[in-house]
Each structure stands twice: as structure tokens, then as C-alpha cells.
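Complex record, two chains
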Amino acid sequence: MTVRQRSMAKRIILKDLNQELRLFQRRILIVGFLLLLGVLLIIARLCILQWFQHERYTTLSNENQLTIIPIPPNRGLIYDRNGVLLAENLPVFSLELIPDKVANLQKTLRELREFIQISDNDVAQFQKQIKQQRRFEKVALKSQLTSQEVAQFYVNQYRFPGVLINAELLRYYPLGEVMVSALGYVGRINTADLQTLDISNYSGTNYIGKLGIEKSYENILHGQVGNEQVETDASGRIIRIMNRSSPVPGNNLYLTIDSQLQMAAVAALGDHRGAVVAIEPATGQVLALVSQPAYDPNLFVTGISQKDFDALNKSLDQPLFNRAIRGQYPPGSIVKPFYALTALNQNLISTEWHVYDKGWFMLPNSTHRYRGYKKEGLGSVNVRQAIAQSSDIFFYELSRKIGIEGMSNILNAFGFGKDTGIELREELPGLVPTPAWKRANKGSAWYPGDTIITGIGQGFLLVTPLQMASAVAALSMRGNRYHPYLLLKQETSRLTEYNKLLKPETKVNASAIAWETVIGGMEDVISSPQGTGYRFGKPPYSVAAKTGTAQVFSIKQNENYKDLKIPERLRDHSTFIAFAPVEDPKIAIAVIVENSPDAAKVARKVIDTYLLSTTPLPLTV
Amino acid sequence: MHLLSLLLPSTYNPDYRHHTFLQRLHIDGPLLGGLLLLVGIGLIILFSAASESYEMITRQSFRLGLAFLILFIFAQISPTAYRRWTPLVFLLSLCSLILVLLVGHIGKGAQRWLDLGILRLQPSELLKLTIPMIAAWCFHDRHLPPNLKEILMVAIIIVAPAFLTALQPDLGTAIILIISGGFVLLLAGLSWRLLAFMLAAVAALTPLIWHFMHDYQRNRVLTFLNPERDPLGAGYHIIQSKIAIGSGGIFGKGWLEGTQSHLNFLPEHATDFIFAVCGEEFGLVGTIVLLFCFLYITARGLYISLNAQDTYTRLLAGSLSLTFCLSALINIGMVIGILPVVGLPLPLISYGGTSLVTVFAGFGILMSIHTHRKLLSG
């Protein structure tokens, strides 16, 4: 830059200075004017408040010197379909003390301890709390008094000014672990819950649904908070209640669950690990939803101790694992009727098409033997016999005819491989494998052998007990599929509202002959002498069923499977689906029993209870 | 006579303007008078708001003494020195802000200050001064009005630290930072069309953001905009402060006679909601007097900016005065229920020390600008 240019630049800046000053002055004037407008607005507002509405606010100030105290709503109760109480609110009593009103704290404590068990820990907590609060505020001394302690306190209350008993409602599940797989539980609101809930509406609430129905229907069960406007004196003591807006209690819910059936299923499973799901086929209403072993939800309400939680969490039996909706098992042979249905419907086979079951099957150009469950074979079987006797060889052949696309299509149509949409958010979708899925997730091509083992419900295929029950219900209704749900109706103080289907029903279409043959084969499972359902016995009603075995432990090519030599936890799971009566299905059921062949026995007891029992079971656990 | 000259700006006699004691100390008499008046009124209100607690009054007086000392020191530094050191000071304040965020992040809690052993440094307070300083510095050697590129550059310098402050989270201070930088832009000659365009862009984005929010987030925004939706939470403050102000009437209930604050119905009555105490005890008359005190100080600050001799001091003085005024108006607007509740104190009146020191430091700079002028004609 030359000297001349620099001096020119300087001159330009100098020349602009006056104009810049004028610009600045103009701006100051405008902004100052805007601020003045703001001041005028404020003065106008002050005039309205302090001049025109002065009377109103004086009244409010003099007579309505109020503090607002939230009143939590009562949580809605939960019943089963017959009105049996499943979740209620019990009052629990805690001992509270107002330091300001107690003359001699040590003496009072000593006297209270004569008839109320107060641990040193309680006292330490109490002393700590006292220091943090104002003198006239209540401080809890002991929670969960026994009824005897409450009674004794009331008798002696005159001796203890400033000591009082506070009642709080606590969620209680009378049937305990029987219902937990459907109901879930509530627990104390934690910081994660606070992120998403409406702080005002929960301002008096300490508990929130954590799992199951309690969580899914939280917004219906909770209700609307109320508040109490109280007049207080100069130091904040409540003098009287000025105004009260009552809380709106949460709605009561009636579930589709039949608690007698639920208990029968729990009893039928006994000590086995497993799950039972029963559905009313004509509606999709879930009658029983059981996962065993279970746990007592009441432990979680007040906050479970670390020791108890570890015991549950680390148990090999996995009681916290809801098998009915989260257990993803290989289904075993129970998928065979669905394959038979699609093959008959597409005319891939006729009802008379035969396969000779010689005990094993081999793909062309391969030496791998896929064996049946019976080493010597079942002989020549048609489709109905193949279902009744669960011929693996027949379905190996059949799966080659249908192909993996056709098989996954029919399984999808019956609801496998995706959420059923039941009101339990923990539900898992299972897995219906396809070549595309395998390429994406396993990084390898789909082999013909994958199709073959999918044909008997093994391989990658995974289903939940709920999906199995829903699928057999649809089968019993000849393709009319009602999506399973748990909420029968909800009830406010004024009206009862029946729940509508969560999802519209869907339809699986098949020819009449296909339905007849498949359902006939399933009847033979129980009624035919060769049927695999012999463990079910001979019931006094008609029943269509299918047994299945889910391998836990695969045996090598030339080994024999000898049950007793294998440790219990590596033994096969048994699966079982059924519906009854065949003519007019009232119940469809799916059972899985881990490491035991007893699924059919369990199912028998449950169906008997539903169809035969006339006297209600006593409702005790 | 001497006392009168403290209070009245009209006593501007050119004959002895270079010879008064105050001038030699680089103190601007009229501004000092206004400050003393407002601070005095503030202590009177605080005494009542603090339930006549001598301890709080003593503590606040001590803070005020410290603040006046800082004002005095800041007034001694010449504007040229301020300008020269601006970039360095700004960078230091920005770094300490980032440091605070990191420390707070590691400590898993909101933290606003750095513990330097003898004192706690609150970087967001520092930025209240350094943001207008750096913005004015950017424009000092440029032609005004600025072009689009310059405006964008300065806008980024303003918004980035404000955004970091909002993350702390300290929304109130973040708003003040944006305002103080925004005033520099406005005074430097930011075109109205561009301003309108920016406001329109923000308005256009709002429905889009709304669309992507969860229900509970929408609820919180609605409560923020209209606290009376939520009588158990934020609305309680507003209801009680309106009762306090409204029941004060024209002349008020009298000093120490306010029931709303003395019976603890009015929350935060010594800090953010102290204006309501003034309204309750001194009525419409009191609130308007208080407003005029703020206006007088602002007017004096603007007078100083109009008489400043270069772009840097002019913009800085203008922004400091306007920000002082607007933060007072925002606090009052919040207390009387015409603005959403953001945690902002009423400058010079609310109980508390950190922002007090910053405000006084700002006035120290204003005095320095006014008393270090060179006589052009004389």
C-alpha cells in the first residue's frame, strides 16, 4: 500500500465520521423510543393491576392468603373379567411428628417406644430430617405401622400432642406372583420417569406404573390431581381449608384374564419353568397369561432390597423373565398344521398325497441325514396322518414343495415374526427367517437345509407363547384372526366403556377342504391311537391339538437321544397348541414347558378347568 | 450545592468541569447520584423483603461497597486501554466459560463458576461485559453501517458464547448476552430489513420445531408462555406476585406492611420477585418512581454514549446503558405477568452479589468513557 493510498483510506474514514455519528444518534433515538414504549406498557399494566383491579386483589390478599397443596388421585383398581380384584390400594400408616409441638422430644421418643417398634436407624433418619425441615412441618418417624401399633397409638394419643398418624395408599396385588406377568407393577417415580411425565399432575403422586398393564394404562389408571387451597398463618401453619378441588380418581380396569384359569395354569405348571397363554378365539381376549416361575410384584412397590433383587435377578430359573411374551423359543412341530394348510390351499399336494416315512430324509446330492423322531419310521402317511403322528419326513418333503418364501408367508399371516400388539410393551416379536434376513444378519446364503429344518419348526425360527396361542386361535376360527388384548373394559364413577379391538381383525383365506383336513389331523393328534398327543389323555370334549418339541441341545449324527443321560437343563422343551371344543371353539391355548415333555398334560388341566369346572375355585394362592 | 450537583445532570458548568474533585477521580457525578439513589431505594425495599433481617442488609451493603470499589477502579482505566485489551479479555472469558462447562460436565451437575481459591469466577457474568466490548471492537475500524459479512461474523461471536451459557443451563443470562451484543449491532447500523428478515426466519421455524416436539415438551413450553396453566408450579409465582402488586393500590400498604411477602406467600421475594414487594408496599407511586430511577440512569448512560468520541466507546456505552435498562424492564415484565418467567434479577435491587458487581463494572466503564474525553475544541 502506498502512502497515498493509505492517506486516501484515512480520508474516507474521516469523511464518514459525521455521517456515522448521525446514524448512531438516530439509532439511539429509535431504540430509546422503543424502550420508552415498553415502560409505558409496564405503567399501563401497573395501572390496571394497582388502580382498576385493586379491589379484587385486595380481597384476594386479605381473605385468600392461600397455599396450594396437591391432593393425589386414587389409582384405578384392576379386576379380572369376573370382577375378582387384582390390584388395590391399601392404606398404610406412618407415624409423624411435628417438632414445634412436642415439648420434650427425648421423653416422647422414649414413651412411644414402649409400644411401637422404632429402630435406632429410624431415629437417626428422623434426627437428620428434623434439621433439614422447618419446625412446624411434619417429619416421618416410622413407616408401615402394624394395625396393632396403630390401635395402641390411638388409645394413647392424648399423651402425645404433636404426634400423629398419617395414612397413605399403597398399591397391593392380592394374588401376588400369579398375575404379575400380565399386570406388572408400580414403583416409586425415579428421575427417568420425571423426564416424560406431567410434573403438575404427579405433584402429589409417588408411584408410577413400571411394567405390564400398570405401565401401558398408566394415563388411565393415574387420574387427575386435585388441590387444596389452605389459609396459613404468619409462620405457615395451616389454619383452615379455603377451597378444595377434588382429584379425579383413575379409571378402574377390567382385564380379559380369568383369574381362576390363570391360577389353574399356574398350578398345572407346578415347579416347571414354562408359559401358558389361553385366548378366547372368537374375540382375541386373553384368558390366561402365565410365566413360571414368577415373582411377587408387591416386593417392587415399596422398593425391593438389593439382596432380594439380586436373588431374583441371578436365579437360574429367571423369574423376572416374562416367558409368555418375551420367551422366544423354537416352536418345534406345532408349526406343521400351518404348512399343511398353505400346501393344501395352493394345491401343492392333495389330501391323498403320500410320503413313505422311513425314519430319515436326505436332500439330493447330499449325505446329511435329517431324521425323524422315530428311528424306524412311520411308514406311508398322508397329510392328515402326518399331522396326527407328527411325521418329520413328510414335512421335510413338504417344505421342499412350499419353499421358504411360502412358509414364511403363511407364518406371517398367522402373526408370527412380529408383535401381536397386545398392551404389554415388553413383548418381543420372535423371528420368521427368510433368505434376505439371513443374508443381512448372518452374512451367508440361504441353504436348502435351512428350509428343511424350518419345515419342522427348528433352525432360526423363533416364536413366543403368546404368538402360538394367537395363531392357534385364528386356526380354530378358520382364518379369522382377532388380535389378542387384555383390557376388557374400563369404568369411571359414571360409565363403563368396553374396549374395542386394538387392531382390526385380519383374515387368512384357505379352501374349506384345507381347513377340514388340517383341523381333522389335529383332532387325530388326541383321538387317534397313533396320535402324538397321548399325554393329553382322552377328554370328554372334542379337541384339536398339535404337539411339538423344541431342541435345546442338538445331538450329533449318530448319537441316540436318551433323556435321562442329559442334564435337566439341556433336555428338550415341549410345546403344545390346542383348541376346544372343535365345533365351537371356546378356548385356544399354547403351552411351553422347558426341559420337560409335559406341555400336553398342563394344557389338559387348563382346558378342563375352563370347560368342565362348575364350582369356582377358592381364590387363594 | 455540592450535593445538588451530584444529583442533577443540568449542573453541567463548563467553567469547572475539569476541576471538580469528582472529575479528577474520573467519576461522573450525575451517574453516581442516580446509582446511589437507586441503590438506596433498593436497600429500603430489601430490608422489608428480607423480613427485616439485618444480616442480609449488612451482607448486601458489603457487596455494594465492593461493587463501588470496582466501579472506581474500572473508571480509572482509559477507554484506549479497554479497546486494546478487548480481544484478549474476550478470549479469556470465552475459555473460562468452556472450562466451566467441561468441569460441570465431568462433575455431572450444572456449574456456573470456577473456583480460583480466593474467589469464584463466573464466566457468564464476565461475558456480559466482554461481548459488547468485542462487538464494538469489531466495528471500531470499519465503515458503518456494516456490510452483511461483518454482521454475520459479529453475530457468530455473540451467539456462540450465549449458546454455551444456555447449555449451563442459564437461560436468563444467555438472553442478556444476546441482547447486549444485539444492541451493538443495532447501534452500529444493522439494517432494519435484515433485522426483520432474521425475526421472520425465527418465526417461520417455530411451527416446525413445535411439530417435532413431544407432548410433554409442548406442555412445558405452554406453561412457560402462560404460567397460569399450572397453578401448582410456575403459575403460583405469578398469581402471588400479581396479588402482591394489585393489593398495593396507588399508595401501597406502607413500608414493612406488605402481607404477601412477610407471610411468605410470594416466593423469591428478595431476589427475582423483589419488584412485587415494592409494588405491594409503595403502590403505583412507588413502582413509577422506581421505573423513573431506572430511566434516569439509562438516559445518563445514553447521554454519555452520544458524547463519546470514537466508534468503540460510543457503541460500548450505548449497549451497556440499553442492556441495563432492558434487563430491568424484562424483570419487571416478568413479575407483573406480561413476560414469561426467566430467572433474571432486577439490577441493583435484587439480593445477590454476582450480577451487582458486573453492573457496577459496566458503569465504571461508562464513567471512564465520559471522563477521559479529550477536548476537541477548547
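Note: Chain A has two domains: 73-114+121-255, 259-311+321-612.
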